[in-house]
Each structure stands twice: as C-alpha cells, then as structure tokens.
C-alpha cells in the first residue's frame, strides 16, 4: 500500500510550519477553485432557502411584531413559551403524534404485505403493483377532492355502500372523534404503494436458497418471515419509518382542503398550525417558534435513526 | 384455483403447496381493487348525467347514458387550461435550472478533489433533512423581500438547488470510466466540454429518473404555491383544484368535481401508464430524497 502511494510518505520540508500551512491553504484553495465554482450555483440557492431559512427561523422566533407594519420587538424566548402554552399547538402536536403512528404502522404493514405478495414479477403482479402505486402519483389535493365525496354524509360513497350496514351513520369528517381517523385513511391509501417499492427492492436481497433450506427444515411461511425475511428487511424498515414520519409532518395538504383543522381542532396538525399563525394571524414570531420546535424534533429523530443505522453497520 | 396455481408456478417447488402465501395474495388482490375504487368512482361520476341526481352519485355502475357535460362544466367554471400552463411552466422552469445546478455540483463531487469536500457534502445532506415545506414561513418572507411574491419565479426558486439530484448525478458520473475523460483531455477538451460531451450524454438515464421525481413532486406541490401565489390567474393546478372544489362543493356538483380532478391528474396518470417501469425504478431511487 505504501508502495502504491509514495506521496503519503513523510517528506522533509524546509519551510516553517506556519508558513507551510498558509501556503498549503493557498495552493489548496487555488486547486479547489474550479470545484467551488461548479458548486457555487447550488450553494447560493441552498444558502438562501435552506441555511438562511434556518437562521431566519432562529431570529424570527426571538422577535415579536403585533401587526404587519408595526416595529419588531425583541422578546427572547417569549414566543416559544407562548407556543408551548397555546392549547391549539399542544393539541396539534398530540394530533400529529396520533396521526404519525396511525398512518405509519398501517401503511408500512400493508406495504410489506403487498411486497411479499407481489415479489415475483409477471403480468398479473405488475398490474397489481401499478394499481397500488397509482395513489402515490396524484396530488394530495386531488385525493382530497375524491375523498370529500367518499366521506360525504348519507349520499357519499362510503355511506352508500357500507353505511347501510350500520344502525347510525357517522359523520366521517364532521365528528371530532372520527375526523382525524378519516384523514388518516387517505394518507394510508396514498402512501402504502410508495413504501411497497422499498420493500420490493429489499426483498431482492433475501437469498432464495436460504428460504428453501429453511423450508426443508420444516419452517412454515410465518417462521421464514420472522427469522429470515424480517431480519433481512431491517434497514428497509428503519428507512421507511423515517420517510413515513417525515410525511406525517409535511404531507398534510388534505387538512387544508377537507377540514381546515376542524371540527373543533380535531384535525389540526403542526404544519397547519404554523400556516395559520403565519398567514391568518400574521404572527411570524409564533409561527417561527413552532417551526423551530418542529425542526428540532425532526432533526433529533433523523439523527437518532442515522445513528442506529450506523451502529448496526459498524456493530458485530 | 387453476389460475391461482398458474400464478404460483414459478414459486420454489417446496413452497408451492403452502396456503398462507396464497391467502396473502388473495388479500392483496382484494385491497388492490379497493385501492382503485376512488379512481373508478371518479371516472363513473365524470360521465354520469347531472339528471341522475345526488342519490345516485355514489353508484359505481356506470350510467347507461354517459355524458361529457361534467367535463364541459369543469372546463368552463375552473380555469384549468391556465392552471395547467402555470404548473407546466413551474415544473419546466425548476427542472431546467436543476439540470444545470445538479450537473455542475454532481461533477464536482464525483471527479474533483477540493478542500472541505466532506464539509460541503454534509451541507448538501442537510437539505435532505430540512424538508423545504417546513421552511415555508422564513422562505415566504425572503421571496417577498426579493420582490417575487405572487410571481411564478417565487414558487420555483427554493427548489433550484437539489441535494437529491446532486447525489444522483454524482453517483452516475462516478460510474463513467475515467479513460473516456482522459482521452478527451488529450484532445484538449476543457472542463465544460468534457461535462457536456462525455458526462451528460452517458448519464441520460439518471437525468430522466431525476426528471420524473422532480416533475411529479412539483406537479403535486400545494402548500408553498398556495402561500406565494395570490392572483387567481397564476394558480397552479393543485391550488386551482382546491378553490374549484371548495366552490363546487357548495352547490353539491360532485360530477363536476370528479371531472375537474380527472383533468388535473390525467396527464400524470397517462404518462405513468406509458412509462410504468421507468417511473417505478425512479421512485425507488427517490428514497434517498
């Protein structure tokens, strides 16, 4: 190895270390210049809309402005305490947690079922995959328009076919106890086909001969799932869980179209709360404080999952 | 049952007689049908004559007297051609700029050595975690300060740089043998010539994969354009559809809503059905997004 890389051998230098470092930096910068120029367009936009935006959230969360024209006033952590004390924010957080768990688990379970059933490729499985994947492609707003009718009381699709079996027809989107679960159905319908793709890709890694050997040893389908397939799919699970959690926070367009957070805040989710504070109450301070808290939570989560992933890869 | 066995004929011999996988398959078929019902209703309701009344609106059996009235109504009430142009303009604009930024940055990461490479790599990685939709509040203020409020450019700008695209191109460029570039170097080709004539033509599959992901995601964007756009004539399809739905819901014009929804999603669905394989493999790579 050292023979192949003679440059890595210590070479005697005459220059004093300080000057040496400076010169090395200068030549390094000069040699790096073409790369920096190529990266510049991307970095400009990232600086404006990602890092800059982060910085602005931090600053805005520390100031208060009562009306759009009023001067800003430094309030320190007041916005954050105000948001944490706001029952509609804490309500939105609780709703969002229920929504995240209640959409992630069913859609991932369904995705796994779909992938296991459709792992072999033929004309029939391709058609079924396409059918399950269709909802992924359409805008959440379009899905909302369709489900508005599906959940319509009395004459809607659900009541027309299933509601007849129930003694009392529930008002799917109008009942505060049910509305959150109704919008969860849309998310599951829309995302299961997407997660299915990752499980299909993950299943390619399950060795066929191990499966056969397990079968010869008397392992039934569930044993093989439990002891061969699921361990093999662990990275996929972790990865899909992160995406599903991110989606549960960011993909909430149906709340805007269908319920506007109602009835009585039952479907108010964090992003909708942020939007309302910023656009309807013009309270940039509170909106920024809520954004900051959400970002912190999400970053902690992704960092945690990346660490789990790294530990698993590095571990025995 | 025969059909079922035919479907499982390529399963390993040993497992072919197991019942559980077949039950799972049957359940999946059932759910796939359930998954299609909203689309089925959309099609049936679009063609149903308004004279059938609200009580038959949910019927999934198509009407015997199909009509295009709903499509005409939706076309006239909603400003769909305009919305369509706005969305197409936004998606194309974003994609063209992204092609430039991700090619240049992807090349730098794939082929050039430079100081601070790891640091800059992590700076890019940050964008994957800081989902742009969460930064709507600070970005809306920036867009307003730049004088781009209520402008389509304002809708596009936050997406001009793409970490996902950069990583995708880096991966594609790394797979290209350096010998090709060396040959071009000997012929005296400059940096941009090498990118233009060697790297880009050999990475077209990655560009098309990225284009599919970029266009579908921005075609479906709702919250950000909703905040940036104020004038009705600048609305993209998603915002237009939500306004249209809110109006038509008031008059219980469900056939018109179905027709409007159909018009909004038809272009993507048709493209998907033609390029199904390519879409699916692109979406698998989108996982790292």
TrEMBL record, chain A:
Keywords: Cell membrane, Membrane, Transmembrane, Transmembrane helix, Transport. PROSITE patterns: ABC_TM1 (PS50928). GO terms for biological process: transmembrane transport. It comes from the Bacteria. GO terms for cellular component: plasma membrane. It is a multi-pass membrane protein. This is ABC transporter permease. It comes from Bradyrhizobium centrolobii.
Automatic annotation (TrEMBL), chain B:
One of its GO terms (biological process) is transmembrane transport. It is a multi-pass membrane protein. Keywords: Cell membrane, Membrane, Transmembrane, Transmembrane helix, Transport. One of its GO terms (cellular component) is plasma membrane. The chain crosses the membrane at residues 23-41, 83-107, 119-140, 152-169, 198-219, 253-275. It is found in: Cell membrane. Residues 84-275 form the ABC transmembrane type-1 domain. This is ABC transporter permease. Gene3D superfamilies: MetI-like (1.10.3720.10). Belongs to the binding-protein-dependent transport system permease family.
